Amino acid sequence: MIKSQFIFKNSILKKIVDKISFTHIMLFALIGGYAVGKYTSIDFANTYELMLYLMIFLIGVDLAKSDGLKSIKHVGKMGLILPAISILGAVIAALIATPLFGIPIKYSLAISTSVGWYSLAGPTIATYSTEYGLIAFLMNFMREIFTMIGYPLAVKKFPKDSAITLGGATSMDSTMPVVAKFGGTEYTMLSFVHGVILSALVPFILPLILML
């Protein structure tokens, strides 16, 4: 048994496994999921939501077993600062995108300030413009995917708490497991609060912008 473990540790397979990063796993999973969805009749519509709830549940368990109070301490003022930075960053990005891509300022702001909430942004903006509604859906959906791949890389160069802003509103659910894994469980609560505040603001901000 010991000999077999030694062989594995020094095998080519072990070296390959060590080099496979979370980013690679995410890409393989995405490609595999696309293939299954395209070439099979299996319906995972409800499974995705159940798996998401399960991940959040497991994060809660891990949070309790580590140090929940320590995680809450990490929130502090950053719980308000990060959402403010996210909204400000979204506005700046919209102002840059307007002349760069020729998008009307109203739609540029609406798409950007949706901060990753594609299921709300797409249908809401589509009532004013089908074209920009589709763009809003795709851009905000891609933000979620980008965060899952980009957060592990971002925390190597930037503060772990600041990098949470990449996820926008998704930091309270779908991208929170990524924050927990690569930022640490102490940043899980901050990620959740950041997402909750943005999710509370977007339904009010979006209609106001679209009425411009």
Automatic annotation (TrEMBL):
<dbReference type="InterPro" id="IPR005642">
    <property type="entry name" value="LysO"/>
</dbReference>
<dbReference type="GO" id="GO:0005886">
    <property type="term" value="C:plasma membrane"/>
</dbReference>
<dbReference type="GO" id="GO:0015661">
    <property type="term" value="F:L-lysine efflux transmembrane transporter activity"/>
</dbReference>
<feature type="transmembrane region" description="Helical">
    <location>
        <begin position="78"/>
        <end position="103"/>
    </location>
</feature>
<feature type="transmembrane region" description="Helical">
    <location>
        <begin position="190"/>
        <end position="210"/>
    </location>
</feature>
<keyword id="KW-0472">Membrane</keyword>
<feature type="transmembrane region" description="Helical">
    <location>
        <begin position="20"/>
        <end position="36"/>
    </location>
</feature>
<dbReference type="Pfam" id="PF03956">
    <property type="entry name" value="Lys_export"/>
</dbReference>
<keyword id="KW-1133">Transmembrane helix</keyword>
<feature type="transmembrane region" description="Helical">
    <location>
        <begin position="48"/>
        <end position="66"/>
    </location>
</feature>
<protein>
    <recommendedName>
        <fullName>Lysine exporter LysO family protein</fullName>
    </recommendedName>
</protein>
<feature type="transmembrane region" description="Helical">
    <location>
        <begin position="115"/>
        <end position="138"/>
    </location>
</feature>
<keyword id="KW-0812">Transmembrane</keyword>
